[in-house]
Design goal:
TIM Barrel, two-stranded antiparallel ribbon, 45% helix
């Protein structure tokens, strides 16, 4: 699979100086974690999951999560389990390109039951998402280990940090340290750490509207900062931490001005694009993704295919960032500081090295834009509103 593969060779050549690399399910963990991009969540009760995921891949989705937990009612669990096994069997029997497939379970025993229901086709399952992850979630990891041994290949784990113990200030640090210790014991199986902002917000009865980002909600922003601090360090102990879910797919009443400047949208065609983005509330999503990246998060949970283009377009590395990253890595042995070749910032070899390595890894997954190509160009080429 490959990001932006749906654009075609000619358009891709006009947009990218370095195109995204191909990767598959067996890719190195660091590459695969960075390449997740916009991860599409879908309830396991949907009647046409196979068709949904095949279409989603055509729209740029390379990672999907099928939910047996909060996305379905308690009374629908048995139906959802049977429907999921049936739909995944249909999906795995086809050789058409599809996203990575993860299943969010609510109980550890669902892992083994799903593998058993899929039979030989279980080897095509990519991993398990564990909700409300704490140090007490070890039984989920044990179930994944057992299932991996049964099918003869590694199932990835993506824990979701969203428990009340993480939200509450008096228990947060102890809980996060316990999570870090448990994940460290299974580091080779953990693909990325996800953040459950909806559950965290529920501790205060909060729900952010489409024109307010999660970073504007101080209690949530502080939790995200602490999660990244403890679990997202770039010192060899951390993991890729993904952005919290964007749960809006249409715009309601707007309180604030649109959050997209008019200047990048001056051409007639892209002025139409700007109006479409604003009418669907996606200007809020774009701002939140930019803030995710500024706070050390990469990729994002989304609930609608229209979100995918914005998340993935913002993940493309700019020509300037790529040039700075290359220069910083080249200078790492000598250390010191030098002006960016663009003459607008300093590049300090040692402090900026972790950023540079992360940027080059993202460039492999999402490509590097040409010098004259902007986010708007990438979005216009990708979006289907």
């Amino acid at each position: 699979m490959r990001h932006f593969d749906h654009l075609g060779t000619e358009l891709e050549g006009r947009l990218f100086s370095l195109p995204p690399e191909e990767f598959d399910r067996s890719a190195d963990r660091d590459v695969l974690a960075v390449a997740l991009g916009a991860t599409l969540y879908t309830p396991a009760t949907r009647p046409a999951i196979e068709a949904d995921l095949l279409r989603a891949y055509e729209r740029g989705v390379v990672c999907s999560v099928l939910c047996l937990e909060d996305a379905i009612a308690d009374g629908d669990v048995e139906f959802a389990e049977k429907n999921l096994a049936h739909q995944l069997s249909l999906l795995f029997e086809t050789d058409r390109p599809r996203p990575l497939v993860f299943v969010r379970v609510r109980r550890p025993e669902q892992v083994g039951a799903l593998v058993q229901a899929l039979g030989d086709l279980a080897v095509h399952l990519d991993g398990i998402v564990v909700p409300k992850f704490t140090a007490a979630s070890a039984p989920f990891l044990d179930a994944v280990v057992e299932a991996s041994e049964r099918i003869g290949r590694r199932l990835w784990v993506m824990p979701v940090i969203e428990s009340p113990e993480v939200f509450r200030l008096e228990t947060r640090l102890e809980t996060l340290l316990g999570v870090r210790e448990l994940l460290a014991a299974h580091q080779e199986r953990v693909l990325a750490v996800r953040i459950g902002a909806t559950d965290l917000a529920s501790m205060l009865g909060l729900r952010r509207p489409a024109d307010i980002t999660v970073y504007d909600v101080a209690p949530l922003a502080s939790v995200i900062g602490d999660i990244v601090n403890v679990l997202g360090r770039r010192d060899g102990t951390g993991f890729v931490v993904t952005g919290p879910v964007w749960e809006h797919f249409d715009n309601g009443e707007r309180l604030f001005k649109p959050q997209l400047r008019e200047t990048p949208f001056t051409a007639p065609a892209v002025r139409v694009l700007r109006r479409s983005l604003i009418s669907k509330g996606l200007d809020g999503l774009i701002r939140e993704v930019a803030l995710d990246q500024a706070n050390g998060l990469l990729g994002k949970t989304v609930i609608h295919p229209t979100h995918v283009a914005a998340v993935n377009a913002l993940s493309v590395v700019t020509n300037e960032d790529h040039a700075d990253a290359v220069d910083i890595v080249a200078a790492q042995r000598g250390g010191g500081v030098a002006a960016s070749r663009f003459g607008n910032k300093m590049n300090e070899a040692n402090p900026h090295l972790a950023w540079a390595n992360a940027t080059l890894l993202r460039a492999r997954a999402f490509g590097v834009a040409r010098e004259d190509v902007t986010f708007v160009d990438l979005l216009e080429a990708s979006v289907r509103l």
